[in-house]
Design brief:
The chain is of the alpha+beta class. It contains twelve helices and 21 strands. The strands form seven sheets. Strands 1, 2, 3, 4 and 5 form a five-stranded antiparallel beta sheet that branches. A three-stranded antiparallel beta sheet has the order 6-7-8.
Amino acid sequence: MESNSNDNYVLVLEDRTEVKNEKEAGKLSVVSGIDDKGNLKTTEAIAANQAAFLKFNNKDGLLKNFMTNFLKQFNNPTHFGLYKVLADNVEQGVDNLRTMLQSREKPESKQQLAEMGIPFEDYLPQQKNATAIDSEKVDWKMLNDLGLSRERLEQNGELEKMLNWQKSNLITIAVPIGDTTIYTEARLAFRTDDSGNIGLAIHPLRKEPQLDFPYMGYKFSPEEKEQLLTTGNLGKTIEVTPKNAKPFSAYVSIDPQTNEIIALRADRVNIPKEIKGVTLSDTQYKDLVEGKAVKVEGMTAKSGKSFNATLQVNAERKGIEFIFDNNRGFKERQQQTQQQGVPHKLCGLELSDKQREALDSGRTLYLKNMVDKQGQAFNAYVRMDKEQNRPRFYKWNPDKKQESGKEKVVAVAEEHKTQVAVNNQGKTNEATKNVNEPLKSGQTQPTAAQKQKQDEKKQQRRGRKM
């Protein structure tokens, strides 16, 4: 991130592990980084070591990530102190700091040390609250007004995400405007207002990202627009200003599903020094914190296999994104995100190639022995939802209209009618009347070989009549 050199500062570490009395200042040194084992590195506070100093800036998120790793290293950080000193005058700044520490009980020194010091308690892990939203507190009418229902969200698997404060995937919603209803696609998320009431955030699908207009007071340059459209991430942090709020440093990305511009506060992103078994170098770590794309090799997957990937903070994902094919642009990766397709396994049931092909072509299948999240086996009709390009489950055959008092329909799609009627019900289809072998899936006409056999039988019957 570009910054004014006057804003840069270094951290001076006071090590009090060997002091003999409270009035004595500890050993002072400048933080230069963290080594491959996660240990803090420091160097003497002299101008000759300027190039080795780890520099920070008030507008970036490097300090938060550094402090997270620092506090993980020390079991008892009370023996240490960290203080900000301007980077362009380190020697004088450290001399002044030493003088203040030697008279730390004086009111004027206390005030100055408080302004220069880094309060550890601001960076200690916070106790997390329960994340799940109580579904009983949700106003389901606000969803009904959009043509949605709790049952529909449960069926397509989106409700679980939303109850855990996540966005849904794209869903078709109906927006009533006067006497007209407009159907559009959007991602939905539950949010709370100042009173704690559960509300609904709607993120509509946009044809393209709106990069020509100021975003939270920030106007993108032509180079920044190109960067966002090419990679999906801005590649640096910028200062944005929301309405009626203070400005903050943020990572910026494009939501690949909706084309919405997303900002993520830089001070809320925790970037670990070690990722998937690889300890980042100081340069990799700093670049990643600043929003740049970083190539990391030799990481270890859950399966135990080694892999390489490009890492970058992604605002929409609220964390680090793993990019496995950096040669593909954002548009190509966006298309892959939107084309989830037919899975190979569905609720524990391995699908055959024919079943996947049938679902992909829009047919409805009745699948048995699937397993739900409670471990219970169940059967259901399954059909691909073309709007969301994902499978949906039905208690009744969605290809048939259900009428009260009628017998349960057979699990047959339109293109299977002829096949089932001939193979299972003994009915006759004129085109396949004399085909003795079972019809193939969706077959309503004889194959060339079957047609030839039909013609031969007709000739034999005519010969017998003569």
